[in-house]
Amino acid sequence: MNIEKAGKEDHAALIDIWERSVRATHDFLSDEQIAALRPLILNHYFDAVDLRITRQEDDEITGFVGVAGDQVEMLFVCPSHQRKGIGSLLMRHAIEHQGARRVDVNEQNPAAIGFYLHLGFVQMGRSEHDGQGNPFPLLHLRLASTTS
Q1: Considering the chain, what percentage of its residues have pLDDT values greater than 70?
Q2: Which of 32, 65, 86, 143 has its CA 20 to 30 A from that of 25?
Q3: Contact predicate 122/141, CB 8 Å
Q4: Is the pTM of this model over 0.85?
Q5: In 10 A of CB 97, how many CB atoms?
Q6: Which burial class, exposed, middle or buried, applies to 70 when counting CB atoms under 10 A from its CB (0-12, 13-18, 19+)?
Q7: Cα 62–112–12 angle (5° rounding)?
Q8: pLDDT (tens digit, 9 = 90+) per residue, 60-91?
Q9: What is the per-residue DSSP string for 72-118?
Q10: Cα–Cα distance, 68 to 99 (Å, whole number)
Q11: Neighbour-count burial of 98, counting CB atoms closer than 10 A to its CB (0-12 exposed, 13-18 middle, 19+ buried)
Q12: Is the per-residue pLDDT at 147 higher than 60?
């Protein structure tokens, strides 16, 4: 499996992975909220991050990570490929090659919280609302080795 920089030609596949992953892991979001986020992610958020993808030998994209500054802004893996090490591979790449040191995670997504804690992140704070002002608390995490 290769990690490579995403191009505009990959965005259609990425938004499909995003939606399938969100529907599998973010049960606190309504269909309307997902529908409202989709064009924002596709038309704005993908372009605002350093976006890397995992691509299999058959050219299938299985996941992606987006980093802005030292913050992981998005990490999504196709549901059929979750729990196979792709998320860990993308996060290691983000940390080692993209300078990622921080990530925010929805408090209502305990699997994601456990994933980041397992990778060495620690909670540094909490917000009552997400980035769009919705009442979905976020936990602010930082790599334990960079908490000083």
Answers
A1: 98
A2: 143
A3: yes
A4: yes
A5: 12
A6: middle
A7: 30
A8: 999 999 999 999 999 999 999 988 999 999 99
A9: EEEEEE-GGGTTSSHHHHHHHHHHHHS---EEEEETT-HHHHHHHHH
A10: 9
A11: buried
A12: no
Look at residue 148 and tell me whether its pLDDT is greater than 70: no
Q: Which amino acid is at 100?
A: A
For residue 25 the two structure tokens come to: 């892991």
User: Distance between CA 13 and CA 46 in Å, rounded?
Assistant: 12
What type of residue sits at position 126?
R
- The residue with tokens 């925010």 is 104
Residue with tokens 């699997």: 111
Beta-carbon contacts of 121 under 8 Å, excluding residues fewer than 6 positions away, are 103, 141, 142, 143, 144
Determine the 3-state secondary structure of 68 from DSSP. strand
> Residues 31-34: contacts with CB within 8 Å, 24+ apart?
33/134
Cα–Cα separations (whole angstroms), residue 47 to 20, 41, 66, 112: 20, 9, 9, 24
Q: Which residue has the tokens 């305990």?
A: 110
**pLDDT the model gives residue 121:** 97
Task: Using pLDDT thresholds of 50, 70 and 90, give the confidence band for residue 97.
Answer: very high
How far, in whole angstroms, is CA 143 from its chain's centroid?
16
